[in-house]
Design brief:
Elements (H helix, E strand, L loop, with lengths): L10 E6 L2 E6 L20 H18 L4 E4 L7 H11 L5 H4 L2 E4 L15 H16 L2 E5 L2 E5 L14 E3 L3 H18 L4 E4 L7 H11 L5 H4 L2 E4 L2 E4 L9 H16 L2 E3 L8 H14 L5 E4 L2 E2 L5 E2 L13 E7 L2 H13 L6 H8 L3 E5 L1 H6 L2 E6 L7 H11 L6 H10 L11 E5 L7
Parallel strand pairs: 3-4, 7-18, 8-9, 8-12, 9-11, 12-17, 17-18
Antiparallel strand pairs: 1-2, 5-6, 6-15, 10-16, 13-14, 15-16
């Protein structure tokens, strides 16, 4: 499948009688076709508002996926906004709202964004808090795209990292499996599990693979909804450097035959962001993450990353997932850890991987909202940068101010794990070497 990359367009500026007009290079306007102007006469402003809302609903029903809308300021759409405000208090239009990317169409400048005469404040008053909590929020920070979920209040309480030193990688794998089994024994019903790529969980996967050859863990496996946590894109799903192929190799056919569902991040598509949305929608529909297996990636200046949340990428508390530009260092780290792990990689696989432009990753909110996190760090001998990263992770003193905490975590994303109150971390002795 051919994967399209985003075309970069230049913005042209034209001055006309003191007015500045911006246009994209290469855009051509089709010839305007003359036709009678169609309008409908309605008896009341409320009827106009209802008709406008019905047009939005009709468009949404006819067009799958996300919807971009431009808000109208002033009185013209106030009756529609009243309808939307009322409906957003319940779950009646939640599916519609979650598909909306909302933009304003004009503004006075310069002016403080919280000025009572700005359209932004007026829209907040008319549409209400619930509306803005439920619509899709997409932010771009330094070329990183973050998808936010503003539902639920984030009140982070920093924790000391609960880590345990074990003597062997096999012991770490057993401890990780025991955490999964204990969680399953404590919870009834299905379990949503996030897999960890690379070497960190390979010993656990070996245990699971062996047990799945018999019926010993069939009850547990039959309750698992399994998700991946990150991916390089665009890339064929059957590339030997994709996490999907590696999980299939490590966990085995029996595992995937017995679990309830497997949902990877789709990287073989023309619409990377749309597919990531579908992934998130399924994750949410299952009640969120039960158990999240995490590692720790080393970064410059003893910082670290979780999933692929990179330092200074602008990730915030409400960001549930992101699409970040790839770098040569990330590519080398990714390829090397697959080679060390024993993956079968062809020359064509490596060439395609080196042409990837983005990384899909779960974000801070996924980490903070997980009911349980199990972290493993077993490769300090081959990735010695993790020694300093782990030291900084456990020794960092958090600010008491939420905004400052967010800045600390943006500078060193490994810290996000310390804001989840239910974490078990298993490490080998070499991680504590000086």
């Amino acid at each position: 499948m051919k994967v399209k990359s985003q075309e970069i367009k230049e913005i042209n500026r034209r001055n006309e009688n003191g007015n500045s007009w911006l246009s994209f290079s290469g855009n051509k306007t089709d010839a305007v076709k003359k036709s009678p102007y169609q309008y409908n006469v309605l008896d009341t402003e409320e009827a106009v508002g209802k008709a406008m809302f019905d047009e939005l609903v009709k468009y949404a029903n006819e067009n799958p996926g996300d919807i971009v809308i431009l808000l109208l300021g002033g009185r013209g759409a106030q009756a529609m906004y009243k309808i939307i405000n009322e409906k957003s208090q319940s779950d009646e239009i939640d599916e519609l709202l979650a598909r909306l990317h909302v933009f304003t169409q004009d503004a006075l400048a310069p002016m403080a964004m919280n000025n009572g005469l700005s359209f932004v404040r007026d829209f907040e008053r008319l549409l209400g808090d619930k509306f803005f909590e439920k619509i899709k929020e997409r932010r771009i920070v330094n070329q990183n795209i973050w998808l936010a979920d503003k539902s639920g209040e984030q009140n982070p309480i920093p924790q000391k990292l609960d880590y345990k030193v074990l003597e062997t990688e096999a012991a770490v794998g057993q401890a990780m499996f025991d955490e999964l089994a204990a969680y399953a024994n404590e919870k009834n019903g299905d379990i949503v599990m996030i897999l960890l790529g690379g070497r960190g969980a390979q010993a656990m996967y070996k245990i699971i693979n062996e047990k799945s050859q018999t019926d010993e863990t069939d009850d547990l496996l039959g309750r698992l909804h399994v998700f991946t946590q990150d991916a390089l894109a665009p890339m064929r799903m059957n590339n030997g450097l994709s996490f999907v192929r590696d999980f299939e190799r490590l966990l085995g056919e029996k595992f995937f035959a017995k679990i309830k569902s497997f949902t990877p991040m789709n990287t073989e598509t023309d619409d990377i962001e749309g597919e990531l949305d579908k992934y998130l929608e399924k994750l949410e529909s299952l009640g969120g993450i039960d158990i999240f297996f995490l590692g720790l990636g080393p970064e410059a200046e003893a910082a670290s990353h979780l999933c692929y949340i990179k330092p200074n990428s602008g990730a915030a508390f409400d960001d549930v997932a992101g699409i970040i530009p790839i770098s040569s260092s990330i590519l080398e780290h990714h390829i090397n850890k697959f080679k060390v792990g024993g993956s079968a990689i062809s020359e064509a696989d490596e060439t395609e991987c080196r042409n990837a432009t983005s990384i899909l990753t779960l974000g801070p909110k996924a980490i903070l909202s997980a009911k349980k996190i199990v972290q493993s760090i077993v490769d300090a001998s081959t990735a010695p940068g993790k020694i300093a990263s782990f030291k900084r992770l456990i020794e960092t003193e958090f600010s008491s101010d939420k905004n400052e905490i967010a800045k600390q975590c943006d500078e060193n994303p490994g810290l996000w794990i310390r804001l989840n109150p239910n974490v078990k971390s298993f490490i080998l002795p070499d991680l504590l070497e000086k």
